[in-house]
Amino acid sequence: SDSSPPIGRPVRFSTGPMAGIALRAELDELQKANLGRRFAWKDKRTLDPPPVVRLRLFEVNEVDAYRRREQEIRGDLETKCHGFVCQADLFPIPEEYYVQSAQTESLGASTKSGTSTAEIQRVIPVMSPSNQRLCPHRAVTRFTSEWGSGPSHAPRKPASRPRGAATAPAATATLAHTDVVAHLGQHTITECSSCTPTLAGAKFVSPSCIDYKGSSTLIFVYSDLAVRMTGTFILRYRVFNVLSVPADMSMLPVLAECYGGCFKVYSTKDFPGLPPSTELTKYISLFGVRLNSREHERKRRKKASPSSDAKPSSRIATSSSRTVPSSPPSPACSDSCELSDVD
């Protein structure tokens, strides 16, 4: 059978590192992105702070037909994590939800980085339970084909219907309902609203094993993720195992998913600058995970404007000492300027 179990249910693997094990996985966002600058070709402008997602694994043993016992896998995670991959998808949201989230965080009322379960709820499809559970290889093909289809990076619009053509109301309503994947307050999030092709950088990452709160923990760190458009967004995370194949399945099932907190991507001229790195970011860097860590705030550099109270002699000296470069600046120089003002 090719049907996949609902996301979050136990999966029994028949081959690979997890062969013979019935496994259930959980994802939760430990650190959400707060802001970013629109991606430009001269510098990557990754999301800040880097999103961090925790993976928890539970071995499931059936006691009888009605009961089962779960035990979290805590030991030897570095060898058992082989094959796990986490995929990030991008969804736009109304700016009002980002403003509410920012106000809540500023008041200190929220103690969790990611959006709470009450704010985002996963909607169960009414048709096939596997229609939203993509194998990562198929997902890569879909995103690559959309990204390479033309200069526009916006999500594809549905094909136009000839004038006067009849539609099936029941089928249309059913399709619209099954396309709903989550709710953010009163806002409905649909699969077709995904703008994942506008993500730049590493959308698929492998886990790192760190010591977190006294125990070994698997985390996915999105330190190389940027967005090609401005707006307010959330990320959806989905985890697969590409080395272990479940019994009686030809597709790789989604083992777990979660939605992250709201963040905003600014244009260059509106970008407020980067705050110091979070304590979690600094801590993760101690384990050899590659990410950018800053001790101090980094504000956006503004273009220099001639001051009205500058001394005439200093302005004359500056203009007389200006020379024309014999060759254009090296691309490596512009690449190293993380806060360049050029889009």
UniProtKB/TrEMBL annotation:
GO CC list: nucleus
Broad class of where this protein is predominantly found: nucleus
Keyword Transcription appears in the UniProt entry: yes
Gene3D superfamilies noted in UniProt: Velvet domain
Low complexity bias: start-end ranges: 305-325
PROSITE patterns in UniProt: VELVET
Assigned keywords, A-Z: Nucleus, Transcription, Transcription regulation
Span of domain Velvet: 20-294
Cited Pfam families: Velvet
Record has Nucleus as a keyword: yes
InterPro entries, alphabetized: Velvet (IPR021740), Velvet_dom (IPR037525), Velvet_dom_sf (IPR038491)
Region spans: Disordered: 144-168, 294-343
Subcellular location as annotated: Nucleus
Protein's name in the database: Velvet domain-containing protein
Organism: Laetiporus sulphureus 93-53
Origin organism lineage: Eukaryota, Fungi, Dikarya, Basidiomycota, Agaricomycotina
